[in-house]
Amino acid sequence: MDKKSLSVTAFALFSLFFGAGNLILPPLLGFNAGNLWWLVALGFCLSGVLIPVLGILAHAKLQGTMFDFAKKVSPIFSTIYCFVVYAIAIALPSPRTASVTHEMAIQPNWDSSYLLTSFIYFALVFVFVINRSKVLDILGKILTPAILLILLMIIATAIFTLDFNFSPSQMTNPFSAGILEGYQTFDAIGAVVVGAVIIISINLKEKNASFEDKRKLIVKAGLWAGLGLLLVYGGLILTGALFADTFDAEITRTELLRGISTQTLGSTANLFLSILVSLACFTTAVGIVTGTADFVRGQYSDSNLAYKITALLGCSLGVLMGQFNVGYIIAVALPALMFIYPITIVLILLNVSPDKWTSPKVFRWVVVATILFSVPDFLGSIGLAESLDWFFKWIPLNQHQLGWVLPSLVTFFVSNLLLKQDLKRAS
Fold first, then answer.
1. Would you state the pLDDT for residue 363?
2. What's the whole-number mean pLDDT along residues 257-279?
3. Who contacts 94 (Cβ-Cβ below 8 Å, separation ≥6)?
4. What SS3 string covers 62-88?
5. What would the pLDDT profile of 222-261 be if each residue is shown by its tens digit?
6. What's the CA gap between 355 and 357, in Å, rounded?
7. pLDDT above 80 (res 276)
8. Contact yes or no for 138/11 (Cβ under 8 A)
9. SS3 for 376?
10. How confident is the model at residue 306 (pLDDT cuts 50, 70, 90)?
11. Band (123; pLDDT cuts 50, 70, 90)
12. So what family is this one in (predicted)?
């Protein structure tokens, strides 16, 4: 694979990851973290960069579809998991991109409704999705460089013109707050969804490439995309921290980003911000709808009709959900994320681990443990945890809404130890 293929694939991966949540979440994190911005950045980048990159590395290893991520648990579980993830993806993060575009790019400049914006927005998404073979080139050659250029202008202006005087942090647990806010980027889910889009796109463009060549291309592109996300997230969190004394403490995510843009880019802020938001959100919506349509097509013997119908339904759902404001969509997404995100993280980690440690039995036991210990976080997100607090409080890290972490880790090691002992007895 040549350098051109690598750069196009890396830019495409970055643009598919970098959408609405990635743009509006980091600045407010830094704004609230103050002098502890670096700690919240570590947590955010753990769930928003490291895990997604590992997801792409797992795709490089499997070179299949999202179904392959969970098939070791069981084919039935994998099918259910895929449908749930794709349903969440087209129902929440995809419409959120239209809502963010409206609030930051359209509403400040024109008096129009959420419905009109989401209708035009997803009509364009549908056009891109139908032109499936051109997705990689369009994202990698045109849209992503423009996104990065505008972002770097905002971040660089803030870093080189402001004094590094930080306010005291408003957070009690900045590291875990960063991890949980990283859930809202949907990047771990994005890794298993858009990673499959990249695999199919590469197969369409590089039909004669070997498995190993494609693996190397995907790994290198994933690492470069991850580095880009790391720099951008860190820069946006630092920028938010630098402006902690400039804006009202109750400022919203979208208002803060708009205010930072105005402070850094002056009279041209609205134009630049409109372009940035539109591009960043649009590329993610294209990736989500394309990935969902690819999956459904695979379930129906590579039917192009199934692909087009799914793309149309995904865009129609985007129009319906895109009518709600950003805050509402983020609030609605939280319960789903608190349940599906731990499962997705565990599947990514298991798939990227050596095969000798990840037999089907290990997959099953670890995933079951993750599901069971994700229940308290899910109940907490819908306001039902207090009545069962006497039962859940003994779970380590439960107070940080990460109660699934240690049980899953212990199950991984114990299951491998037990299986190893069984093999010794059998021999």
1. 93
2. 76
3. 284, 285, 288, 289, 314, 317, 318, 321
4. HCCCCHHHHCCCCHHHHHHHHHHHHHH
5. 889 889 889 889 999 999 999 888 888 888 888 888 888 8
6. 5
7. no
8. no
9. helix
10. very high
11. very high
12. Belongs to the branched chain amino acid transporter family.
How sure is the predictor about 119, in pLDDT bands with cuts at 50, 70 and 90? very high
Q: Cα separation of 367 and 378, whole Å?
A: 16
Closest among 338, 327, 285, 345 to 127, alpha carbons compared: 285
Q: Which spans in 104-173 are helix H? A: 114-130, 135-138, 144-161
Closest among 61, 56, 357 to 215, alpha carbons compared:
61
Closest CA to 14 of 225, 287, 194: 225
Run of H or E residues at 357: none
Decide if 27 contacts 240 (C-beta within 8 A).
yes
- DSSP string over 208-273: T--HHHHHHHHHHHHHHHHHHHHHHHHHHHHHHHHTTTTS-TT--HHHHHHHHHHHHHGGGHHHHH
pLDDT at 389: 64
Specify the pTM: 0.81
What are the tokens at 188? Answer: 């771990």
Q: What is the mean pLDDT of the chain?
A: 82
Domain ranges of the chain: 3-342, 353-427
Decide if 194 contacts 17 (C-beta within 8 A). yes
Distance CA 266, CA 257 (A): 13
Is the model's pLDDT at 142 over the cut of 70?
no
Which helix (H) or strand (E) covers residue 326, if one does?
A: helix 326-352
Q: Are 176 and 404 in contact (CB under 8 A)?
A: no
CATH superfamily of 3-342: Amino acid/polyamine transporter I (1.20.1740.10)
Give the span between the Cα atoms of 53 and 223, in whole angstroms. Answer: 7
Q: What is the pLDDT of residue 286?
A: 84
Measured on CA atoms in the order 179, 181, 185, 188, is the torsion positive or negative? positive
